[in-house]
Each structure stands twice: as structure tokens, then as C-alpha cells.
Amino acid sequence: MALIKLEHVTKSYRERLALSDVSLSFEPSEWVYVTGPSGAGKSTLLRLLSLSERPSRGRVEAEPGLRKAIGMLGQEFRLLNDRNVYENIALGCRISGVWDKEEIRERVAPLLDEMGIRGHEELYPGQLSAGEKQRVALARALVRHPRILIADEPTGNLDPTAAAQIFSLMRQYRDRETLVVVATHAEDWTLRHPGRVIRLEQGVVRSDLPRAGADGAAPADPPATPSPGGGGI
Amino acid sequence: MGQLGYIFTELWRTLSRHRTLCLASILSMSSILLILLLFMMVLTGVDNYTEQLESREEISIFLNEGLSRPDVDVIAGRLRLMAGVDSVRFVSKDEAWDQFRADVADEALLQAVGGNPLPASFVVRPKPEYRNAEGVRSIARQAETLPHVEDVRYAGEWVLRAEQVTRTLHQIGAVLGLIILIGVLFVVGATTRLAIQARLDSLHVIRSLGGGFLFTDAPYLAEGFVLATISSVLTILLARAIHDSLAEGLFHLPMPSTEVLLGFAAMAGLLGFLGSWIAVATLPRRWLL
């Protein structure tokens, strides 16, 4: 049973055609890359999957209630600079409709450990490294218990170590029934963390292939949990 | 923290981050609200004065010198038959003089006046339905036509003029109120716009996370309401201070009742809410992209 399905979807912005007659289906627990050059339609596809935009033509079919269970992660960390780490993560809860203080605490606490940012709750984004900021952003996306995690160039602003940590953390969630969709220019990630690869060019799906590692086998993931405070403040 | 708590936290965050802006906004709104409140106080004073004038509805009809008692009785009889007359009281020349002496109570001045120059008169009290400017004037006009009547004095003319002045002031008040309404909307709207502009990045993030009305609009609506309400309270305190300082002198500005002041504060709060709502609803589209 597909979690979300695009049927003959076309999306255009005024005169510009961003996606053309795209049909794709996504299952829970899938790890999907969306690749392609700039302007290929990757971000448009992600916006349609996040249900934040409607197609110009065609249909997007999603399971009921999915809108509140979508986590977003971008290249820019997009943290609120006037709120501390805890409040940034808790905001994700509140936006998804969870207001009970205790429940928010129960959701945030394990993520602080998993993301290796325990002890940083009271810090503000300006006091964090790029890697830590992205881990906070990932925690904010995951605190909603997303059924889809959409990441648009999530490692674009990170050094290789921090990027590897983010991929490892996201991989854990693929194993928890979460559909993970990653848009990336860096196709080497598709070799290091195998998954389905959708290649877009000029708004058209050129290929949609499951892919294993470079040597045909799934490579070992980097350590799942980064060291607390990794990357420095 | 519930939804209301979240709105108040966000409100506090905005107020504390933009203290100068909020203070300028409060002072601007207080200034224009003070104009309205002071005008309302002047209007209340004029209304009270007009009411006092209307209560002075008695008409004094002064008679020629040297009338006989039968002549006086004839005039009294004709006065009692006039439409709108409730009672007629005769004030003799001696009674008028005694009353004058009691009022003046200055022997030197009384001796300077010499003998009694005051004429005898009738004091006519109109029926309740005639106790207004028009009613008093109609009785006075009839009385002027009677024989042996030297002069007729009444407060009706003043009442009529005061009523005209009051009507004009009420009209000015309505126009002033409208101008001030627009002024408050403008100030609150501009403040809200500036606050939103200062937090556009945060707004974009919240919108990208799926945050709706409660996260993107409600805090600003609450801000408009709170700023305008604080301004109205400050205005009332200023008006009170002006009232108290004037009370020590000759000029008196009556303070509106508590109910009116509460209504004033509620109206200001509502205007603030409305101003913010307009500002949020008409944000330039490019800000939200």
C-alpha cells in the first residue's frame, strides 16, 4: 500500500514548467534519493510530496492525516534564532498539534540523546556548529514522528563528518517505517547509502531505479550516533 | 503550555524584542486617544451645563411701575390661562428688594443703590413638557403681549444656543472619533507590519514547518490588542491627571463614568485587534514567498 502516490503530475509556475507528467509511488520504510541537475524539478517534487503545494495537473494521493506527519529538513538549517534548542525542537511538536508539556518533553528527550545534543538544550542556534544545527533541525523534523522525512540537500552546508552523521541518523528512521526522501546533487551518497534513486531532468523522470552500493552490496553506514558536542560550539 | 500560553509567550517575545517600537506605538496611540478622551470630557461638561440650563426653566415677567392690585390680578389670571403654564407666583417690589439685599449682603453697595429700583414681577413655571428651550420661549412670547409687561427674561435662549453648541460638538466629536479610529488603525497596522518585517525569517521557517494561523497570525493580533489596550489605560491615567490638576482651578472637566472608561478601553483594544488584522491580512505577497 503506497504511503503517497503521484499520478501524471504536472507542475508549472506561470510560464515555467517544473515537472511534467510524473507518476511515482512511495512506500513506508523506503529510502529514496531524488537526483538531477539544478532546475531538474527536485525541490518541486519535494514540495508536492510534503503536500505544501498542489499540482497544476494530475493527482497526489496521500494517506489521511499524512500532512501532520511530514518532517522537513533543508540545506539551510532554518532554526529560529530567538529560541533555544529545546524550544526549536518543541516547535515541531506544537505545529503538529501536540501541546501537552509532558508529552512534548517525552518526545524531545530521546531525540536529544539520539542526535547527540543532550546538554545543549539551553543553547541558542548562534552558539552551535553547523553539524549541531542540522542535528537540531533533524530532531525538530523527527519529533513529529513523521511517516515521511523529506530532506532537501541536507548535507549541503556540512563538512564530510557532519554529513555522514546526518545520513546515519536519517538511516535509523528508515528502519522505523518512515519513508525517507533525500534530494541531493552529491550522487556519491547514493553509493554509500544504497536506496531507490529517482533521476529527474528538465522536470521529467529519466530513471527510477533501486541501487545497491558501488560494489553491488550495501556499504557499512558510518557510526549512528555522533559524539555529544561533536563539531564544537 | 497550551495554545493561549503559546500566544502570550510569543507576544511577550515580540514586545520585549521590539521594546522601542512598542513604546513608540503606545505613546503615539495614547496621544491620539487622549485627544478623543479630552474631547469626550469637554462634551460631557457641555452636556451637563446644558442640562443645568434646561432645569432653569422659570420665566420672569417684569411689570410696569404703579400697577393696582386688580391690574396685577388680571395679569396673573391671563398668565394662568396660557398654554404650558404650570404655576404663577407674584413677587412684589418689596419682596424683590429683600431678596436682592439678602443676595448682595453688602451694605455699602446697597446704600449706593439708594432706594428700591426693582420692579414687581411674576415668576412663571412651565409644565414639565414645556421645560425646554422651545416651550419656555413660546410662553415668554405670549407673556410679552400682555398689557403692563415691561420685560420678559428667561434662560430659554441660552438653552437653545447651548443645545445648538452641544449638537455641533457632538458632530465634531463623531468626525474626530472617525479620524482617531483611522489613526489608531494606522499606528497599530504600521507597528504590526514592522514587527512582522523584523521576524520574517522566523515566519518563513514556521510556515515551512506547516505552522498556520495560531503560529503566524495570532501573536500579532494579540499584540495589536494589547498595545492598544495599554495605550487606552495610559490615556485614561493622563486624562485623570489633567482632570485633577484642572479641578484645583476654576475650569472643570468632568471625568466620564467607569462604564464609559471601560467601554473606551474595550473600543481601543478592539481597534488595535482590527488594525493588526488588517496589517496581517494585507501583507505584501512577496513577503510570504
Distance between the first and last residues' Cα of chain A: 44 Å
Low-confidence stretches of chain A: 212-233
β-strand percent of chain B reads 5-15%
Q: SSE order of chain B, as H and E? A: HHEHEHHEHEHHHHHH
Overall mean pLDDT score of chain B? 85
Query: How are strands sequenced across the largest beta sheet of chain A?
Result: 5-6-7-3-8-9
Whole-angstrom Rg of chain A: 17 Å
Give the number of helices of chain A. 6
Count up the helices of chain B: 12
Number of structural domains of chain A: 1
Main sheet properties of chain A: 6 strands, mixed
Secondary structure class of chain A reads: alpha/beta
* The named CATH superfamily of chain A: P-loop containing nucleotide triphosphate hydrolases
- As for the number of domains of chain B, it is 2
Helical coverage of chain A, percent range = 25-40%
What is the terminal-to-terminal distance of chain B?
30 Å
Largest two-chain interface:
A-B, 19 and 16 residues
CATH topology name of chain A, in short, is Rossmann fold
Structural class by sheet pairing and helices of chain B = alpha+beta
Task: Supply the key terms.
heterodimer, A: 233 residues, alpha/beta, Rossmann fold, 3-stranded antiparallel sheet, 9 strands, 28% helix, 26% strand, globular, disordered C terminus, B: 289 residues, alpha+beta, Alpha-Beta Plaits, 4-stranded antiparallel sheet, 12 helices, elongated
